[in-house]
Amino acid sequence: MKPENALYIVATPIGNLADMTPRAIEVLQNVDVIAAEDTRHSAKLMQHCNVQRPLIAYHDHTFVEQSERIIARIKSGESLALISDAGTPLISDPGYRLVSLARQAGVKVIPIPGACALITALCAAGLPSDRFMFEGFTPAKSVSRRKCFEALASEARTLVFYESPHRIEGALADMVECFGTERPAVMARELTKTFETFLSGSLGEIYQTVCEDANQQRGEIILLIEGYKKPEQSGDELSAEAEKTMRVLMGELPLKQAAALTAQITGEKKNKLYKWGLEIQ
After folding, report:
1. What's 145's domain CATH number?
2. 88: which of 39, 97, 175, 259 lies 20 to 30 Å off by Cα?
3. pLDDT tens-digit series, residues 142-163
């Protein structure tokens, strides 16, 4: 069945070819042309799925002239599918500019969902997944990586990063420095493939394992870091507001009166405030 005149964003497997959905195969078998990140790489998938449609290359860095040609073809009545080397296009892969221009030109864009590495890793990591932040690939240089990680050190959501094998050891070292040795984390590697691996534990433990085992420095890697949690206060500690109020009032009033007024203002227990005041006098 011939697809409608539109741009189709088609997800492809991230490793296991059996993860290609029937709908994705049907679309690829029937569109007029397929735009691929790497036509030679995608040719293997096309052969596996019995897809015999023309392949053209699409890269974001050559998007201007290629996008104009693609949109012109669609507006003339053709249907076109965009795929990346693996997973969902636009998720740290080319396609954003093409989709944006297609929308501006009034071209219909239809997503065909399927495999996505970050979601695959997140659902099996065992870290909080109700709220997360995807940061894509980490910066290549250590100085830039540390600035990035330092800015995210107090982020409460689970953090998800992609990383390349030759940078994984350095990236983990910078994470340990910026997030702390004990921050819970997961490293997912080679998802859906023969040597799929999940390393769970503290950042320090994962870093040590990767340094000691060269096999963990191979393949496609995803790093997931649990969000920042404020340290729990002990029952003897005062809130910042109560401590500030006590210090001001103790400079002007007797301790007993300062504690009584602070209790009224902040809701803290008067006896607790009085005890705290005695300890710092």
Report:
1. 3.30.950.10
2. 175
3. 999 999 999 999 999 999 999 9
Decide if pLDDT at 1 tops 70.
no
How far is residue 140's CA from residue 51's CA, in Å, rounded to a whole number? 37
**Confidence (pTM):** 0.79
Does residue 191 share a domain with residue 264?
no
Least confident piece of the model among 19-28, 132-141, 218-227, 256-265: 256-265
Among the candidates 202, 225, 248, a domain finishes at 225
Supply the range of the domain harboring residue 245: 240-280
Which of 81, 84, 87 minimizes the C-alpha distance to 16?
87
Sort 125 into a burial class: Cβ within 10 Å, 0-12 / 13-18 / 19+: buried
The yes-or-no verdict on residue 233 having pLDDT over 60 is: no
pLDDT reported for residue 84: 94
Write down the mean pLDDT value for the chain.
92
Continuous segment of H or E residues that includes residue 23? helix 22-30
Q: Give the mean model confidence (pLDDT) for residues 4-28.
A: 96
Output the six-digit token pair for 80: 């076109």
100, 115, 130 — which closes off a domain? Answer: 115
Note whether 33 and 103 are same-domain residues.
yes
Q: What is the C-alpha separation between 35 and 43, in angstroms, rounded?
A: 11
21 within domain boundaries: yes
Identity of the residue numbered 267: G
